[in-house]
Specification:
The chain has five helices and 19 strands. By secondary structure, it is mainly beta. It has a single domain (15-388), classed as Porin, CATH 2.40.160. The chain has a 14-stranded antiparallel β-barrel with strand order 3-4-5-6-7-9-10-12-14-15-16-17-18-19. A three-stranded antiparallel beta sheet has the order 2-1-8. A hairpin with a 2-residue loop joins strand 6 and strand 7. Helix 2 packs antiparallel against helix 3. The longest helix is centred in the first third of the chain and has 24 residues, at 33-56. 35% of the residues are buried.
């Protein structure tokens, strides 16, 4: 028999969630392997074709038919399955912050990037998922150039700083701190990153990045209260099992490949590759799983002042189903960007951002839930602020 659990928060009306069901939100039905194989095969064909076209005609103007074809193919990938997957933590502004999902993106730009942000999901639920993050990336030995955004400060929207493509190898370092809290569970992770960028052509790089980090997973007993303890009747075996365990501290290793040019980006990432092979503590009920994601996008020039970037992001965590997200981002004069994303059976995301000065930028997004939670939650916010030094 399941006992309901109420998350404590005196400032909001308390909503009750079944404790076991809440835990199982991160482990639903198994994926359909035939559909996943179809998606992977389709994605390979799409981006192999687009990559060939990019390398042969990198400097040519893209016409409207090319845009329609690329968008159509992305839509096919996005909607070819009806699945929804675990995403803890997840980010809605990955297109402007690719390092969050791929360590190979560290040092893509020739300046020091310092970004801090936060997410609040399932607004309306007490103790709903909350994520805070800060990361730093920097090229090693990069020369200051006219594209360096720290040369001066202008007020008002300014152009994006440009990456420097000079067909030379380059190295980069990075680091991040992530704090993710959902209900009575908390996840803290600190990582250090190294990335090596190898020129494929004079205007295209292939980067390999590796993360080495330390993570802590814990169950916060003070944030969970079972109805059995409130009424004095019965016990909650699930709660007692989690409450009796200590924290799980473990070594986290991740790696990513990231192919990019001024217009194209394609990446694949693996995280928690060693699972709990190196661990400290007795959190035996916490089972870290490998995370994999694939991302790709292409920027089209609609006019002299407007660009359109469609992208697709696929994430997989065994045994959860595959998660697919498609995005369209418009950018005006490389100063202001806005767009929409669709995360299948989960949310529609609207996002906007701008370069406030040559050193400062911000981004904001709102997730409108399309799942069964939209009757109880009116969405979620994500905000980040970045310094370009």
């Amino acid at each position: 028999m399941h006992h309901a659990i109420a998350w404590n928060n005196s400032s909001q009306p308390t909503k009750q969630l079944n404790f076991t069901s809440f835990s199982l939100l991160t482990s639903t039905k198994r994926m359909n392997y035939l559909k996943i194989l179809y998606i992977w095969t389709t994605a390979q064909l799409i981006f192999k074709r687009q990559l060939t076209y990019e390398m042969k005609k990198l400097n040519t103007t893209r016409n409207l038919e090319s845009i329609k074809l690329f968008v159509t193919l992305c839509v096919i990938v996005v909607f070819s399955v009806a699945v929804n997957a675990q995403q803890i933590p997840q980010y809605s502004q990955y297109m402007k912050n690719p390092y969050l999902i791929n360590p190979g993106a560290a040092g893509q730009q020739n300046f020091i990037d310092v970004t801090a942000g936060g997410r609040m999901q399932w607004l309306g639920f007490s103790d709903a998922p909350k994520t805070m993050y800060v990361f730093v990336t920097a090229p090693i030995g990069a020369k200051v150039s006219k594209y360096n955004p720290s040369v001066k400060i202008n007020y008002g929207a300014v152009r994006n700083p440009r990456a420097i493509y000079n067909a030379q190898q380059k190295h980069a370092l990075g680091g991040s701190l992530i704090v993710d809290q959902y209900g009575a569970f908390q996840y803290i992770k600190a990582t250090a990153t190294y990335a090596f960028h190898l020129p494929v052509t004079d205007k295209m790089y292939l980067s390999f990045g590796a993360n080495v980090g330390y993570s802590n997973r814990s169950f916060l007993k003070s944030r969970a209260q079972t109805l059995s303890s409130m009424t004095g009747v019965g016990t909650d075996v699930t709660y007692d099992t989690y409450a009796s365990q200590g924290d799980l501290n473990m070594l986290d290793i991740g790696a990513g490949l990231y192919l990019y040019s001024e217009n194209l980006f394609v990446g694949i990432t693996g995280d928690q590759l060693t699972k709990d092979f190196v661990r400290f503590g007795n959190g035996s009920n916490i089972d870290p799983r490998m995370h994999f994601n694939f991302v790709a996008g292409y920027k089209f020039n609609l006019s002299n002042t407007m660009t359109l970037t469609p992208s697709v992001l696929a994430k997989y965590i065994k045994p959860s189903p595959l998660s697919i997200e498609g995005s369209l981002m418009f950018e005006w004069k490389e100063r202001v960007w806005y767009g929409l994303s669709y995360r299948y059976q989960d949310a529609v995301v609207g996002f906007v951002g701008m370069n406030i000065t040559n050193r400062l930028r911000f981004g904001y997004s709102f997730d409108f839930s399309t799942s069964r939670f939209n009757k109880h939650s009116f969405g979620g916010h994500e905000l980040n602020i970045g310094l370009m030094l």
